Amino acid sequence: MEKTDIITVSNPKSPIAEAYRTLRTNIQFSSFDKSVQTVSITSSGPGEGKSTIASNLAVVTAESGKRTLLIDCDQRKPMIHKIFNQSNLVGLSNLLAGEVTIENAIKPTNMENLSIITAGTRPPNPSELLASGKMKHFVEDMKDKYDFIVFDTPPVLIVTDAQLLADYTDGYLLVVSSGAA
Ligand SMILES: Nc1ncnc2c1ncn2[C@@H]1O[C@H](COP(=O)(O)OP(=O)(O)OP(=O)(O)O)[C@@H](O)[C@H]1O
Ligand SMILES: [Mg+2]
């Protein structure tokens, strides 16, 4: 990867990168009955680090050899394309609107085992998009192709999108910024 702000890529031996690996392990062992294949990263308010954590978790999971897909489900403030220095001309919204194929929507990264889907053109009705049957089918399809899927979502206090993903999500990771009152 070229210049990047993703610490697990730029500084893989740092204590922070190691903390992300611990997080990865904890998620793997958070359920004994059923393996965790899909995780939504959420928080109550904005700017608490969801997109940062989603990206780093996806990187360390890919690093562990799992085929990993990171999906930007935040149509209101999409970030994944910025974090990975990719274009957002086509993405999830365009895929669900039938404008592009899955092959065109999924973007490889310079990291082995890691692909991303950016948010795409901002739709007028982002919540409907995530609640659609198309989204459900798409995620089912991806669960056959990937070992681990990370959803980056908007804050739950602002929109209900993270709840809409409940149907597809084995687990939620609730981000709370430290020091926040
Ligand atoms: N652990 C951290 N310590 C300090 N700054 C951080 C940390 N994690 C993220 N940041 C910074 O805080 C800002 C917001 O992070 P990020 O975009 O990941 O939050 P978010 O929860 O996804 O925000 P939004 O609600 O807008 O989607 C970014 O500038 C990011 O670099
Ligand atoms: Mg975000």
Characterise the protein shown here.
- With 181 residues, this protein is an alpha/beta fold.
- It has a single domain (7-175), classed as P-loop containing nucleotide triphosphate hydrolases (Rossmann fold, 3-Layer(aba) Sandwich), CATH 3.40.50.300.
- It contains nine helices and six strands.
- A six-stranded mixed beta sheet has the order 3-4-2-5-1-6.
- A hairpin with a 5-residue loop joins strand 3 (107-108) and strand 4.
- The radius of gyration is 15 Å and the shape is globular.
- Bound molecules: adenosine-5'-triphosphate and magnesium ion.
- Magnesium ion binds at residues 50-51, 74, 77, 79, 152.
Give me the secondary-structure topology:
Blueprint: H1 7-10, H2 15-28, E1 38-43, H3 50-63, E2 68-72, H4 80-83, H5 92-96, H6 102-105, E3 107-108, E4 114-117, H7 126-131, H8 133-145, E5 148-152, H9 161-164, E6 171-175
Parallel strand pairs: 1-5, 1-6, 2-4, 2-5
Antiparallel strand pairs: 3-4
The chain binds adenosine-5'-triphosphate and magnesium ion.
Query: What is the CATH superfamily label?
Result: P-loop containing nucleotide triphosphate hydrolases
By CATH, the topology is Rossmann fold
Supply the number of helical segments. Answer: 9
Instruction: Provide the β-strand percentage band.
Output: 5-15%
CATH hierarchy, class = Alpha Beta
**Helical coverage, percent range:** 25-40%
How many domain units? 1
**CATH architectural name:** 3-Layer(aba) Sandwich
**Mean model confidence by pLDDT:** 91
The H-and-E topology, N to C, reads as HHEHEHHHEEHHEHE
Task: Spell out which ligands are present.
Answer: adenosine-5'-triphosphate, magnesium ion
